[in-house]
## 1
Amino acid sequence: MQFEVNSPIPRLIHQTWKTRDVPPEFQALQRSWIGRNPGFTYRFWTDADIERFVVEEHPALLPVFRGYAEPIARIDLARYLILRRFGGVYADLDFECLRPIDGLLEGRSFVVGLEPEEHGRLAKAAERGLSRILCPSFLASVPGHPFWDHLLDQLVEARHSPDVLDATGPFLLTRVHDQYENDRYEKAGDEGKRATVTVLPPELLYPVTKEDCWSGRLFDPVFWERAMRRAYAVHYWEGTWFRDGAGHSTVLPRQVTAVVTDGRPDGARTPVATVEGLPLVSCLMVTRGQRAGRAGLLELAIDGFARQTYPNRELVVVCDSPALPQDDPLELAIRAADCPNVRLVRVEAGGRQGGLTLGELRNIAVDHAAGLYVCQWDDDDLYDPCRLEMQQRVLAAAGAQACLLGRWMIWWPAEDRLAVSCERDWEGSLLCERAVMPRYPALRRGEDTPVVEQLRRSARVVRMDLPRLYTYVVHGGNTFASGHFEEHWQAATARFSGDRCRAVLEEMAKRLPVEPYRRAVPPVPATAAARQEKLLVLTPVKDAVPHLPRYLELLGRLDHDPSRLSLGFLEGDSRDGTHDWLAARLPELRDRYRRVTLLRHDYGFRPEGPRWAPEIQRRRRELLARSRNRLLSGALADEDWVLWLDVDLVDYPPDLPARLLAAGRDIVVPHCVLPDGRSFDLNSFRLTDREMGGEDPRHLADGIFQPPRGAGRLYLDAFAGQGIVPLDGVGGTALLVRADLHREGLCFPPYSHRGYIETEGLAMMARDMGVTAWGLPDLRIIHADH
């Protein structure tokens, strides 16, 4: 098979399973490869497909293929033959794609990843003297790469090895690669260079170990987030071929940190009877069922109870509002849960102004409980399905009478913020023996704090550390005001915002209804108003066909009203048919959006080297400025705002326009980063020495300042946690500008304006007009790595 020297790795993903009936636990992982790589073709292979392929394409290898005792060895051989023939990407089904993989493939002809270093210390690897292990669970190559023939030669020789790891698996792959590299470096000229095998570090594809997965450590959101920061994908090491009953699901921790305090004078244990082996737990939910906008949250809270894994439970719902004559939201929510062990108790306020206090309502719930244990169950929070099971398990193991969480999750849906709380007794998580439960004071808020204080003095209490069991949600209608929750944000043991918040929430969404909750939260008025602003999205494009499907997908996810959203493109100097690609989609785009403009202008600029080379910056940015100005003049009509977006962004939040508008500034940019978290847009900066002129004149090249990274400039990563900061320069990856500023003459100078050009020049020109540009360091968007 001919190896093409400069051909890219095909945008083709291969996966295999025994039949087309993929187990449910792997289906979400399978969808992650399809959903996050929209420009790729997906091909699924069954065992029967593989058998036919080997028969037709490699009949000489049939004796080897059919001679393996272990089915996994046949799959190993098949993946090698498939990639040798078709090229593309192979990924095991227990692999989850976390972000688009283009950045892993660009400019490479063969890609393989290293397993975590810890795997090299396991017994089998140590016996073979392997200090590192290449893993075949993810492989990518061009068709006919010479490594495949080298591997197949060695594989045939190793076919009788008793251990599949040596016959076809990672140990064979590792040894063959070492031999291949030695041979390749002995070859002179370009032949050795073009046949490169790129070996990626573990943090990109294998960020966690087998033990991390099997011990339940991934249930810890802080560990998960740290492990996944640079990862494009994660392998869960299910080992369906050697672990009985393996199948992807979130594994609960084997061990839980817990602290016990005993406030009883004699330390005696109150005996507790059980029903059918497990004590009945009464979950107590107090609600005002007809509060505006809360019906959806009620339904999710009741559904969270219905999905609990602890079997012997009931939900007592106490409501101080009378039932509506028809379509009562509370009764509809109870019916929708289709859970038989839910009881509704309606109470009268007795004519009291303001109704019963929250403390009084909680006491009524306790009085109606049938269980030997009671558990607080608020009507607007999220509960992991194993909350009751894990709290009851720890309580029993500690011989305690009450159990609390020492930390829980706090989520701000409208702000893309998520935190692991500080360490304390979180009263809302209380599970307690009903016999020792103190009465709640008649308070309208803070009623549960005295109850926990009394329990600490009179009962044996265990505090456990498993934050994911309970997610407290800050939605704007909470009992406490926003300042209270800002204090919790500052005191949190871990904080996630922007893209990291979304990444952790996506992981939690495998067990919690995160998106349904987000939809159920009443909209924030400022955000709703922002969605009514007329917004023009402008994007210059060149050779953009690989990026446009994702670009349009992200646009389609925006929560801005499409009837208030206009688009404008200017294409120039493309060689890949970008203009025709967009022109073909104009009808469907114009059906969806307010206005769509497609312009074309060629400048004849096609540099051979990288676009960041210093010697072409002046010319490149001059032409980009001219393109922006031409697009602006041809597309701007009556819009209120202009949002400049790069075509090669790979992710940003659906509420990006609303959050930029909420900043209340005339010019504002988010923090644009690479997939690994590093700042990408270095045109957004603040000068470190503004009083002294800011820039070193030695960094002036071709009339514009081009300092080395960090020389005299601070980028947005230096201001994390500061909310909003003034800037001296801005980039154009996502740049919001009040449209009237453009109408008043603010443009992208295609010449040196006080040493700055294009977007940086716009910021300096705006300063001359008395307008400051601002940056949002914690609002992150992600740019392709190329």
## 2
Amino acid sequence: MTNRFARYAIPLSTLAAITSLALLAASALPAHAAAPGTAAAAVNVFIGTGGDGHTFPGASRPFGMVQPGPDSQVRHFRQSYPWAAGYRHEDNSILGFSHTHFSGSGHSDLGDVLLMPYSGATKLEPGYPERPHSGYRSRFSHDEEKAEPGYYAVRLKDNEVDVELTASDRVAMHRYRFHKNAPAKVILDLRSSIYDYAGKNLWSRLRVRDATTLTGMRETRGWAPGRQLYFAVRFSRPMSARQLHNREEAIEYRGFTPPGKTPADKVVVEGKALMAALEFGVPTDGTLLVKVAISPVSEDNAMGNLDEMPGWDFEAERAAASAAWNEALSVAQVQAPEPMRTMFYTALYHSMLAPSLFMDRDGSYRGPDNAVHQAKGFRYHSTFSLWDTYRALHPLLTLLAPERRNADFVNSLIASREHSPHGILPVWQFHGQETWCMIGYHAVPVIADAYMKGIRGFDANKALTAMTASAEYGPYGGLEHYMKLGYVPIDREPEAASKTVEYAFDDWTIARMAEKMGKKDVAATYYKRAQNYRNVFDRETGFIRARKSSGEFRTPFDPAQSNFGSDYTEGSAWQYSWYMPHDNAGLISMLGGDAALAAKLDQVFDAKIDEKVYAHMEDISGLIGHYAHGNEPSHHVAYLYGFAGAPWRTQERLANIMATQYSNRPDGLSGNDDLGQMSAWFAFTALGFYPVAPGSNEYVIGRPFLDKAVLNLPSGKRFTVRAEQLSEANRYVGGVTLNGKPLARTFLRHDDITSGGELVFTMQASPNKDWGKERSARPYTQTNY
């Protein structure tokens, strides 16, 4: 594979050197709030902000509701993929600082309530990156940009302002430092884009409450239709002048303002293209502070949320954000050489950004029915990228995050189902609204895995009812045909092969939870449905294939073919023919034995393919042969050798994946981070094990990439992983001990970890082909080997 990471924008040495900025206000930024040597100080927030990682470098709290950060481009349909997070490290100008961001999604949205400070002439349009001074955007340099968990700072060259951001759960704080004797001015822009504001913005409102406070709202029909967001903005100085604008009639296609248009100075303005130009005189200390609170419910609630941050002490808020991140990241104490240590803690950081809180201080939130509800006994969260995150992100949080937090996630899913007009669990939800993006009913394995691992604090019977309701909702994704035929027919439903196998896995997790709850009839029904993956497996070719209603496999067949809406979801037969993670023994049997599975896996990784084969599919990235690490269907594949008694082959593949698909650079992720899934994969793999089948209560052992890791578990117990003689040359596992005793099996049970203890790997240069060879040593599968 060509090393796609040969062109990094800035080396680690440069990032490490950026510990302060030269400020125009004649003072330097404070040093890192995160103390040297702490987990938060180890994070490189810029990993994934370049290439296709789609992460954002702004400030936030763990799972926080507000995410203030820089946007380098407007969000509209022509830029929905490259600028999904609003910012790309390759850009050299900043549009402004908005307050909601996705971390690593494959689709663009959010970017609410954009603020841009400046001190020169007022310009009401953002302008163009290739034309400096054409609008209110400003050029910047990465040498004058800095970020760490809970904090972001940058110098705006054209606007002559230094910007710092920090956040609590619901409130962002900005600190602007202007040139000496320069007037302090701020643009507030509620438009999503100068091109499509009339299409995405259904309505918006901007209201002046008093000399220091504005409130407003946006209702949009972007990725999630009918999404409402309310906000309150408070300044540390009173406005000396203001202009509120509705630009619906004042914008031509290319963003120029026609002559003769004079905006009115109003107290309230409503429309689809609102913005404000605000002036604050000349601050004696050159500083203007801003607080922005958001709410899913109302402007008044946004005002109430401002009370979460009552003062104006920026350094105190920044320190509190850093402390919150240090507490969250201290679940692991890691010893590893650079850059591995930084990459590990950054992976943990990215794993703790979503699902995000979406509930006001009074417990109210907006559900998928767009009505306001009250959370009782839990904190409502949203932004569930479930097709991605059920695989590793949620299992990681189930293992490391407090039980209450995991119970909050489950209760939020159940509550969303109760408010859903369709009566089913979320599919891909953000800000309480359903997007219907991707396939499967993957809230089901999230709930089942949590229950199987002992997470309580939610009504299990209500949860199981929600799970079966989702699995039996016929109008969704061909389920009526799946329940009748045992597979989704391609002549009735697109992406039928992928849907069939993903439904089968979800069904197995329902069976697991029902069985543990003592509901044998439900378990039997869904264990049977879990075998439906066999109905789309073609023994003649050895691939998962789409079938017609009549039973025939669709022809012609090309296992490398991939198109949106075809037989597979963001993949080909080469990537999807391994998707029965709950029953790999069944796959082995259908392929013809252990050797056949290993040989077929080798074909995946060792294939010499033209990069053009998948070039039309932007999500299929990070290629090693047909293996596509940049997209989720491949994520468990390297671990499958262990099911065939050859874990040493997994060790080889993992070494290659870690070396080529991750790096401590801005484009250090080979695909979308997908709200933490890519990062969670890295965290698990670095520790030495991975949850191939969430709900099995097992982790398949791979190989470690850290010298030592101590997991500080929510129970107060500790689980230590040590790798003796670990080096680049010693990439194979010679032997494993658990609590001082040799471990013959190639998997860990969840209880092995949560009980506390020590897992020790002895690494060596040559493979140990005997360890894990016996069938008794292999991980769980639904059917016997």
